[in-house]
UniProtKB/TrEMBL annotation:
Broadest EC class assigned to this enzyme: transferase
DNA-binding in keyword set: no
PROSITE patterns: GH16_1, GH16_2
Annotated catalytic residues: E115, E119
Protein known as: Xyloglucan endotransglucosylase/hydrolase
């Protein structure tokens, strides 16, 4: 190899190595979940009601859910999971979507069920939609938070994802954490840790409560209403049998169990704070008329 070329070669190798080390460091301290792998609808999901109101585009790379005055529709994951990373790309109903709700959530079965919810509440044309989240543990919810979007969710696809491990549940929108629910078992708050959950999504009419507290009704002359979905990413611990449930609950070997994913990092907390300060409409943590004393998890979640 000629001298200059060799030097250049060494330089390139050095840069590549440095880059590798740096991204390794970012990998240790940064907490953005692994990149989602887009798959067709059919790989992970099946319709759960009104299958005729779901249209598949591009072999299921995209699915469109339709709501008309006869029916809404919904789908669910084939499998149940205990911990993992789940994400969906959603383009909400364009134009007039008052009265309409899109839900994307994880839920277990039974009376003492656990649930992790995203709900998008539509609005009249030009009026802002609302993103509501909630967490149920052992059958108890009442932990609503509501924010406005920092973009128009009906214009383009945006990513809604949940990272759930033994340490926390993080809600992210396009990689911006909008909420975290830490495991606060040590201070008496139940945390979802042993009941497998399936993913569900639905589009339905909820004009008795969704928009301006139920005052704005669905305008059926604009039907059918369409919400579009893509990505369908699931990277979870499959928990179908008691043995698998045990393994998922105790293994601690998955990528989401590692140090980098046990808490948000400083940058993410700053982004979360930005969402809190600029876009929050309601937070049960600060609702003193409903909760005269601060719910304990709110302190740990830095939510007050
Ligand atoms: C709908 O628009 C009204 C008026 O701007 C607003 O008060 C409300 O929070 C918006 N969103 C929903 C889902 O009601």
């Amino acid at each position: 190899m000629e001298m200059m070329t060799k030097k250049y070669y060494d330089w390139v190798v050095g840069v590549i190595l440095l880059y590798g080390v740096c991204s390794g460091i970012v990998g240790v301290f940064g907490v953005a979940p692994k990149k989602a792998v887009d798959v067709p609808f059919q790989k992970n999901y099946v319709p759960s009601w009104s299958a005729d109101h779901i249209k598949y585009i591009n072999g299921g790379k995209e699915a469109q859910l339709l709501l008309d005055k006869y029916s809404g529709t919904g789908f669910q994951s084939r499998d149940a999971y205990l911990f993992g990373h789940f994400s969906m790309r959603i383009k909400t109903v364009p134009g007039d979507s008052a009265g309409i709700v899109i839900a994307f959530y994880l839920s277990s079965q039974g009376a003492e069920h656990d649930e992790i919810d995203f709900e998008i509440l539509g609005n009249r044309t030009g009026q802002p939609s609302i993103l509501q989240t909630n967490v149920f543990t052992g059958g108890k919810g009442d932990r609503e938070q509501r924010i406005f979007f920092w973009f128009d969710p009906s214009k383009l696809f945006h990513t809604y994802s949940i990272l759930w491990n033994m340490y926390m549940i993080a809600f992210l929108v396009d990689d911006v954490p909008i909420r975290v629910f830490k495991n606060s078992k040590d201070i008496g708050v139940r945390f979802p840790f042993n009941q497998p959950m399936k993913l569900y999504s639905s589009l339905w009419n909820a004009d008795d409560w969704a928009t301006s507290g139920g005052k704005e009704k669905t305008d059926w002359s604009k039907a059918p209403f369409t919400a579009s979905y893509s990505s369908f990413h699931i990277d979870g611990c499959d928990a179908a049998t008691p043995q698998e449930i045990k393994t998922c609950a105790t293994s601690g070997m998955k990528w989401w169990d590692q140090k980098a994913f046990q808490d948000l990092d400083g940058y993410q907390y700053r982004r979360l704070k930005w969402v809190r300060q600029k876009f929050t409409i309601y937070n049960y943590c600060t609702d003193r008329s409903r909760y005269p004393s601060v719910p304990p998890e709110c302190v740990r979640d830095r939510d007050i």
